[in-house]
Amino acid sequence: MVEECIAPGDVDEDRFDRARRISWLDIDSIAKARVLMVGAGAIGNEVGKNLVLSGFRNITVVDMDRVVSSNLARCLFFSNDDVVEGKFKAELVANGMAALDPDVKVKPIVGTIQEQGEDFIAQFDIVLGCLDNILARLHVNSQCCFHGIPYIDGAMDGFNGKVQVILPGHGPCLECGMNDSHAKIVEQRFSCTGNDISLFLPKIGAEITTTSIIGAIMVREAVKLISRKNQWIVENVAYYNGMNNSLEIFQIQKNPNCLNHS
Q1: CATH of 24-261, one of 3.40.50.10950, 3.50.50.60, 3.40.1110.10, 3.40.50.720
Q2: Which residues contact 161 (CB under 8 A, 6 or more apart)?
Q3: 8 A C-beta contact, residue 128 and residue 154
Q4: CB of 53 closer than 8 Å to CB of 27
């Protein structure tokens, strides 16, 4: 019997050698997963980077916005020149992600998620929401629930952030946890008439360290889901408090009147 000899350094030729040493990580399934990332701002930059470095290879990025100066302190894929030229976030993030690994395929879509059609989300295996508005979140949530697609939603406010994993058919969805202030915002938007009417809300505080943590938690949950380790995912909502560096899980009751569960 002849034993195969492994030359020193051979294991380092595999980009994901260290990840493969985590026994439960399914790198092959991660590489095949069809991922939708909605939002290419601060959280989207971090999630996009982490998706590629975690082994995801088939990613679509949807965002309608152009880069502005206030994005630069929190977004590694944007530059001053991008602001001057008014480039689109989705395209820049897609290019930045592709530059991290030549084997990754990233498709940018410039537009809103609502414009992509009712069956758009059905083509993906998992969706990560990196959004900054409630209406888009609710749209993604409802479509994921309808098509049975896992949805990971991330949000932040200053040094605080949260991550919620929605598994259609199991537990509460995003809308189940809405409070009166969320409902009021939605009501304001739909009380407007005309397609050109928008509801503008004040900007919230944000900084890069909290953004990085929320983005990391989101992709970690995606890795667990695609590796079929649902027993380890965040149940209900994980709240991060950056002032005391605590992470707590809060339970949300499934709303029996929520249309997403009917």
Answers
A1: 3.40.50.720
A2: 154, 155, 210, 211, 213, 214, 239, 240, 242
A3: yes
A4: no
Largest CA distance in the chain: 79
Instruction: State pTM to two decimals.
Output: 0.88
61: closest CA among 40, 77, 46, 42? 40
User: Can you say whether residue 19 is alpha, beta or left, with left for phi > 0 and alpha for psi between -120 and 50 degrees?
Assistant: alpha
Amino acid at residue number 43: I
Give residue-wise pLDDT tens across range 41-71: 999 999 999 999 999 999 999 999 999 999 9
Tell me the C-alpha distance between 139 and 211, whole Å: 23
Residue 154, amino acid: G
